[in-house]
Write a structure and sequence with these properties.
- By secondary structure, the protein is of the alpha/beta class.
- It is built from 10 helices and 12 strands.
- It has helices at 55-68, 89-98, 114-122, 136-142, 148-162, 182-189, 218-233, 298-304, 316-319, 324-327, and strands at 25-29, 75-79, 103-107, 125-131, 167-174, 196-201, 238-240, 267-270, 275-277, 291-292, 335-336, 341-342.
- The strands form 2 sheets. A 10-stranded mixed sheet has the order 7-6-5-4-3-2-1-8-9-10, covered by helices on one side. The protein has a two-stranded antiparallel sheet with strand order 11-12.
- Helix 1 (55-68) runs parallel beside helix 2 (89-98) and helix 3 crosses helix 5 (148-162).
- It is globular, with a radius of gyration of 19 Å.
- Residues 4-13 have low confidence and may be disordered.
């Protein structure tokens, strides 16, 4: 069953100050290779070259960062591509664990055999989120992977059987085509001992721009947020992701915190070629590369770079919006930097 004992807050966590700069999540993009070709992939994994650092290079990078930061104050977030396609994955993560890092991972789950699940525990993984994007036929078509749903569901069960992970989460990307499957997905997940179900919407980024029929309508958004609010009112561990300002009717109702885009303020990333940037969902533009780990010390980049992400976003509509104090222009990953406007704004939809 869904674990209704999963940790939740009795009081809503207020959004942090916009001016607060504190590293909370450091993403390592281990690869852009992937064993799936998802229709929504923001990084277009599998379609772009993947430079990959060696375990020895990661050892030096992580040792440098551990010398400059208290590694217990942030989470090392492992992502890709699919991280587990690397044959040296456990060499890297065993080293990170020995250096004291707390780490978690996002994965499509299809490579998580019983032995892999045990190795994830052995190398110190605390949290993981596995993607299930609809019922079986929908998921496999969306991820262009025949048999992917069965393998991912088996991977989740293998993690649960290990029984030592702090949090096993399922993430579902909601689209115009699968939004009617939420009740059926809940029925399936309620029979599993996962800790939470994270629901996010498809965004017009990366490969998703080529499949406009999957993008959600205003009615779809209202349906999704009402569904999440209803489930949470019942005490279910269902949550919306970190994306987008929703207006005060929904903020605090569909997740345990108020919107705060942490790009460059609490989130940084090291890309698979060593470039230092922020949230990996943000459009990959040269001006968003803050440095490279082989010529720049990460601490110096974190303390002195990222200024483009620390001043907020604004356009003419933002300037006239009474919610701007809370929104600050919304999410960087869906901002249209060429036209200086948000590609997604819920003003006049949710508030």
């Amino acid at each position: 069953m869904l674990n209704i004992m999963a940790k939740k807050t009795d009081m809503r966590i207020l959004r942090p100050s916009f001016d607060e700069i504190k590293l909370r999540n450091l993403f390592l993009e281990l690869t852009l290779r992937c064993n799936e070709r998802c229709l929504h992939c923001g990084s277009r994994c599998g379609d772009v070259p993947s430079e990959e650092l060696t375990p020895a290079q990661y050892h030096d990078i992580l040792r440098q960062i551990a010398g400059d930061f208290d590694v217990k104050e942030f989470t090392l977030c492992i992502t890709g591509g699919e991280p587990l396609v690397r044959s040296d994955f456990f060499d890297i993560m065993d080293d990170a664990n020995k250096q004291g890092y707390m780490w978690g991972m996002t994965s499509n789950g299809i490579l998580i055999t019983p032995d892999v699940a045990k190795d994830l525990a052995r190398t110190g993984m605390k949290t993981i989120s596995i993607s299930i994007d609809g019922t079986e036929a929908t998921h496999d078509a969306f991820r262009r992977t025949p048999g992917g749903w069965k393998k991912a569901m088996a991977g989740i069960e293998n993690l649960i059987r290990v029984g030592t992970f702090k949090h096993v989460q399922v993430t579902t990307v909601v689209t115009h085509e699968n939004i009617g499957q939420l009740d059926e997905l809940y029925r399936i997940f309620s029979e599993m001992d996962i800790d939470s179900w994270r629901i996010i919407n498809i965004d017009p980024i990366g490969r998703a721009k080529e499949f406009s029929h999957l993008l959600m309508t205003n009615e779809d958004f209202l349906t999704m947020f009402e569904y999440i609010r209803k489930m949470r009112a019942r005490g279910e561990p269902v949550t919306y992701g970190c994306e987008h300002y929703l207006g005060m009717d929904y903020e605090g109702e569909v997740r345990d915190w108020y919107f705060h885009c942490g790009a460059g303020r609490s989130v940084a990333s090291i890309m698979c070629n060593g470039d230092i940037t922020t949230c990996l969902d943000i459009e990959r533009r040269p001006e968003f590369v803050m440095g490279n780990i082989f010529r720049d010390r990460f601490r110096d980049v974190w303390e002195n770079g990222f200024q483009i992400f620390r001043k907020g976003l604004t356009c003419d509509n933002c300037a006239a919006c009474g919610e701007y104090e809370f929104c600050k222009g919304g999410a960087y990953h869906t901002w249209n930097f060429d036209e200086n406007r948000p590609n997604i704004c819920f003003k006049d939809v949710l508030f």
